[in-house]
Write a structure and sequence with these properties.
By secondary structure, the chain is of the alpha+beta class. The chain has a domain of 157 residues: Chloramphenicol acetyltransferase-like domain (Chloramphenicol Acetyltransferase, 2-Layer Sandwich). It has a 6-stranded mixed β-sheet, with helices on both faces. Strands 5-6-7-2-12 form a 5-stranded mixed β-sheet, sandwiched between helices. A 3-stranded antiparallel β-sheet has the order 1-4-3, with no helix packed on it. Helix 2 packs across helix 4, helix 5 crosses helix 6 and helix 5 packs across helix 9. The two termini are 42 Å apart.
Length: 454
């Protein structure tokens, strides 16, 4: 889906004609079926800049970026209940002003984060993305001090994912600052054996995995998601190691949940961690939408022993390499059948929601989304500067109830823990952060000590 046809306007462009329509891809349709107001499927992206931005220039640059990536200028087309598909209606311009400026204050960033978790941009207005700019505009020195500016973007995950939104933001930076924001070359994964079948020690996919043990959730009627962001050292990985930083993050996540569950008296069970894999290019021609495919990395309970960290890192590297090499649709083969347009989409929606509830016990334990090193400078030019911190967070609806999202910028690892408030409370989030930081340091020490042989 690379070419789009904009609706012509009255006048020299000829008579107006209806906007082009594109059927929802499989991922978009499944997400649309399962929407719920209590825990919206939003992606939160938070970009910290050292300087300030001019409101008019930023709005112009953002509008220009939308037109350079016209697949984001879309809204859900209305239709009768008996229609066979949902459709995106591609528009020539934005329906709404997606950029809002908020003055810096003691709770401005906290409140913006809360809105990003609780308020999904509606699919009925293009684009399904919102940007809040927290900080004084350029030329205003009142009350800002050294805080700089934060761009906080909220994405409706039914329409697109975090990497696609980041591509649009990189184009915005280029148009605003006039500087090259081309992506850096992706890091090279260390050489290893040709990926083969998964090892026989992996638990059966038919066995229900462990759940994150319940903590001290927020009292009713509190709902939605909670969020905690933190800044850590990028874990040390000796040159030539058979594993990647992503494997270290995967191991740290598994050990964190295993430790948390032991603390809360949960019976040991296999863990399964969902890992998004994104094979798209990061250039200006990057496809915009939901472009990641999901794989599940298994961990038998007997493997989750911090005293045998070297072996766990090696086996995790083998598993992730094999899983990434497997050709697989984004949501698996069953999702394509589930969304086949043979009956009205409203009937499929009812069936999909019922199926989601039925298979909840087999849903993976948690999701680790590692964006990796941010490939773009995100350089907004003189006065605003380049991003020195970028956080993402993925939705954390039950039954998982917890997601871990990581990205690295300027030599630092930016970690976001997001959880369902029906499962965990704020103090639980702080405890999980501390456990994750400890386990991640342990993976660095294992490599530095030579425990993991190349």
């Amino acid at each position: 889906m690379t070419a789009v046809e904009h609706p012509a306007r009255h006048g020299t462009d000829g008579p107006a004609r209806p906007p082009a329509r594109v059927p929802f891809p499989v991922v978009d349709e499944v997400s649309r079926h399962c929407q719920q107001e209590e825990e919206p499927e939003t992606v939160h992206i938070e970009v910290h800049l050292p300087g300030r931005l001019d409101p008019g220039r930023l709005r112009t640059a953002f509008a220009g970026a939308l037109h350079r990536h016209p697949r984001i200028l879309m809204r859900e087309a209305p239709g009768a209940w008996y229609r066979r598909r949902y459709e995106w209606e591609l528009t020539a311009d934005a329906d709404v002003d997606a950029v809002t400026f908020r003055p810096y204050g003691p709770h401005a960033l906290r409140d913006a984060r809360s809105r990003a978790l609780a308020e999904a941009p509606p699919l009925s207005a293009a684009p399904p993305i919102r940007m809040e700019v927290v900080g004084a505009p350029e030329g205003d020195t009142h009350g800002v001090g050294d805080h700089g500016t934060v761009l906080l973007l909220t994405v409706n995950h039914t329409a697109l994912d975090g990497p696609a939104c980041l591509r649009i933001l990189a184009t915005t930076a280029e148009l605003y600052g006039g500087r090259d924001n081309s992506p850096a070359a992706p890091p090279v994964r260390p050489a290893g054996p040709v990926a083969g079948p998964l090892d026989t020690a992996a638990p059966s996919p038919w066995s229900p995995p462990a759940r994150v043990a319940r903590g001290a959730p927020a009292p009713s009627p509190a709902a939605g998601n909670g969020l905690l962001v933190t800044d850590l050292d990028v874990p040390h990985r000796p040159k030539g190691s058979p594993y990647t930083v992503n494997d270290q993050l995967m191991v740290a996540t598994a050990l964190t949940i295993a430790h948390w569950n032991r603390e809360h008296g949960a019976r040991p069970r296999p863990l399964r961690i969902t890992m998004p894999v994104d094979d798209r290019t990061r250039g200006a021609d990057m496809p915009i939408g939901n472009g990641t495919r999901l794989v599940e990395v298994p961990f038998p309970p007997e493997e989750l022993d911090p005293a045998r960290l070297g072996g766990l890192l090696r086996r995790t590297a083998e598993r992730t390499r094999a899983l990434k090499a497997l050709p697989r649709p984004q949501l698996g083969h069953g999702a394509a059948l589930l969304t086949a347009p043979v009956v009205p989409v409203a009937w499929r929606a009812t069936f999909t929601r019922g199926l989601r509830r039925a298979v909840a016990p087999w849903t993976s334990t948690t999701l680790l989304s590692n964006i990796g090193r941010i490939p773009y400078p995100l350089d907004f030019g003189e006065g605003a500067g380049s991003a020195h911190a970028v956080w993402f967070s993925a939705p954390a609806r039950m039954p998982r109830g917890l997601t871990v999202t990581t990205a690295s910028t300027a030599g630092r690892l930016h970690v976001a823990l997001r959880w369902s408030r029906s499962l965990l409370g704020d103090e639980d989030g702080a405890r999980l952060r501390d456990l994750f930081a400890h386990q991640l340091r342990a993976t660095s020490e294992a490599g530095a000590s030579g425990e993991v042989a190349p």
